[in-house]
Design goal:
The protein contains 13 helices and 14 strands. It is an alpha/beta fold. The protein has two domains: 15-256, 3-Layer(aba) Sandwich (Aspartate Aminotransferase, domain 2); 258-380, Aspartate Aminotransferase, domain 1, CATH 3.90.1150. The strands form four sheets. A seven-stranded mixed sheet has the order 2-10-9-8-5-3-4, sandwiched between helices. Strands 11-14-13 form a three-stranded antiparallel sheet, covered by helices on one side. Strands 1-12 form a two-stranded parallel sheet. Helix 2 (31-48) crosses helix 9 (241-257) and helix 12 runs antiparallel to helix 13 (366-380).
Amino acid sequence: MKYYLMAPGPSTIPERVLLEMAKPIIHHRTQRFEAVLGKVRAQLKQIFQTQSDVLLFSSVGSGAMEASITNFFSPGDQVIAVVSGKFGERWADQAVVFGLDVVRYEIEWGKAVDLNRLRELLEKHPSAKAVLCQACETSTGVSHPIKEMGQLIKSRSNTLFMVDAITAMGIYDIKTDEWGLDVVISGSQKAFMLPPGLSMMSVSQKAWEFNKVSKLPKFYFNAKEEAKAQSKNTTHFTPAISIIQGLSISLDMMLEEGLPRLFKRHARLAKATRESVKEMGLELWAALPSDSITAVKTPSGIDGEKIVSHMAQKYNVTIIGGQDQLKGKIFRLGHMGYTGEFDVLAMIGATEMTLKDLGHNLTLGKGVARALQVLHQELKS
């Protein structure tokens, strides 16, 4: 039975990328690797929509989250952290570990940032050196109003806006420079269609000024040293060579599709998924859903973890359940990266059959039919 990986990361890797990564490894201190890295660096600027360099770290996205803390702050600095799910919680916890004064903007899991509340927090805490927020909170499928938040923050010369775009970059339109996003991080295993192991971080000129006075310890995740090395198309430490070679192909694919079409495809797949879920009589969890992942409330009487395990064991389709306080209460459907219309149809069909198997009262085919209608209509427009 064909395997479908429809989780919110890692996502499916295209054949072109797999073949590139399967080639004999090259040494990273050679002109051949420098050419690959130079190409990748230029292409990442296009994806991030920035004139600033996008630094690469050989780590998962949590490494870039740590780098965003250690490279721009000093012990005791105050930051406002949006905590609306597992990953907002992680970023806030990292800041605490490194001795920052963290003001937690707690939001009910499934809800998005309230701009008026954020404005109040900024006025109440004028010494806050940064606001930390996810563009998409992967654990809940919520999309935060990053553009509007950037407009609120960018005029404050003493405050950075840091955005975790690990499950958003390359999925929907994020204009890093135009929106005033000072530090934006992402990871390889989502829209970039690669294995886990590579993270990215763009840094604005405003953020580099903060870096000059940062006193937190930094060694492996040293943005200044990496920027110095990567400006010469090399790296400070040994990089994830094969993944960077794969990235050169995945970036080709993304730019061949073109950013407008790339964003439109993800929006189309997300809309079809959301509409099919509602057609099945289920409810969405997120108040402002992302185009990368759809979080669905588990039907009454069914354990969300059973949905995940049954779909994997019987239909060979991998989705994922909820985390922490949402464990068993939601399941999450991914539709990012190397995902097309018929992958979504297979995922919806497997979801329907799984729910039917577990005793949920629904008419088979309604969700798939609704997804087909949406996809057909969207592809015509």
